[in-house]
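2024-03-11 09:14:02 INFO worker-7 job=invfold-0412 stage=load source=structure_tokens
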């Protein structure tokens, strides 16, 4: 195509983005929403997403609504999603996910233009194939690209121009609090990403004594064992997403493993200290907020992370010392005080 796709759309065109799941990725696709809204201020923009993540986008200022798919939906639920997408009569459908279900939704959306990255496995679904983000952004082919940049590159290509990528945006009012507090998240998907809980507990005590911040631990609905152990501190387990976002929005600091809650905190411009084990911090560090990454160097990093492939224990995360995390916290809070 000689002209960028967005220039071919009517100003009031209907546009659908398919981003079905994962907490962190959903947060980090919101900079792409901002770029799309900037390019198409009068368009109707909807996002297809799984039910369990949909509340994350409630009130998101750059989209007009979400189309929900039941979590774990079978063929009837997926067919219902496709019908709802087609009812929007989109001119453009963009696969921001890359999985099989997302590709089929894009292919069957009824959109004249169906876009997705050319390196996605289901590239047959698209009649507009987006180059790799490194190519779009003018980077070296093997250079690491942050997840927010990866998503934003799709919109830049469709709009035909490079732009400054904004921070993530979520909508929530800060929670009421009697005193300043810090959020600690000690959970993670894999053991290779989970720093020792005993270290988090010691850090919580230090935050209280040295920095005057009330520690508040957050845990997911499936982390009951983790939630039961921080005795003497506030623990919020299984919060609905709107409540979790409000809690994050009012925090003075976030400290946690590489996980979705870290990206929620960053979206509210909360200073973040993130502890990395097996995953790639260049791709997953907090996006456009004051932050520190704490990790140790290993030749085997990054790796898939579902288990340790090199040793009998995940030394990458176990070797991160309490002293290194405490120093990162001290430096970050000092930087925030000097900037205020």
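2024-03-11 09:14:09 INFO worker-7 stage=emit residues=340
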């Amino acid at each position: 195509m000689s002209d960028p796709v967005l220039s071919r759309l009517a100003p009031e065109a209907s546009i659908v983005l398919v981003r079905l799941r994962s907490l962190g990725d959903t947060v980090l696709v919101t900079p792409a929403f901002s770029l799309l809204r900037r390019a198409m201020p009068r368009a109707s923009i909807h996002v297809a997403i799984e039910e369990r993540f949909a509340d994350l986008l409630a009130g998101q200022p750059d989209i007009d609504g979400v189309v929900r798919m039941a979590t774990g939906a079978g063929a009837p639920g997926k067919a219902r999603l496709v019908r709802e997408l087609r009812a929007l009569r989109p001119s453009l459908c963009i696969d921001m996910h890359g999985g099989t279900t997302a590709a089929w939704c894009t292919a069957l959306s009824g959109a004249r233009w169906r876009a997705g990255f050319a390196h996605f496995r289901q590239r047959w679904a698209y009649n507009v194939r987006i180059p790799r983000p490194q190519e779009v952004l003018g980077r070296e082919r093997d250079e690491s690209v942050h997840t927010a940049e990866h998503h934003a590159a799709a919109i830049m290509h469709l709009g035909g121009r490079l732009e400054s990528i904004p921070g993530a945006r979520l909508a929530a009012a800060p929670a009421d609090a009697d005193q300043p507090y810090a959020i600690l998240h000690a959970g993670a998907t894999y053991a290779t990403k989970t720093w020792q809980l005993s270290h988090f507990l010691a850090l919580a005590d230090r935050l209280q004594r040295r920095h005057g911040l009330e520690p508040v631990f957050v845990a997911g609905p499936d982390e009951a064992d983790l939630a039961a152990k921080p005795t003497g501190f506030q623990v919020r387990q299984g919060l609905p997403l709107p409540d979790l976002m409000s809690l994050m929005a009012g925090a003075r600091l976030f400290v946690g493993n590489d996980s979705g809650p870290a990206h929620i905190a960053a979206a509210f411009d909360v200073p973040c200290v993130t502890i990395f084990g097996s995953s790639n911090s260049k791709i997953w560090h907090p996006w456009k907020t004051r932050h520190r990454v704490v990790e140790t160097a290993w030749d085997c990093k990054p790796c898939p992370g579902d288990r340790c492939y090199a040793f009998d224990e995940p030394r990458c995360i176990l070797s991160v010392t309490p002293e290194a995390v405490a120093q990162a916290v001290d430096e970050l809070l000092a930087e925030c005080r000097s900037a205020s």
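2024-03-11 09:14:09 INFO worker-7 stage=report msg="Residues 5-159 form a domain with the Rossmann fold fold (CATH 3.40.50.2000)."
2024-03-11 09:14:10 INFO worker-7 job finished
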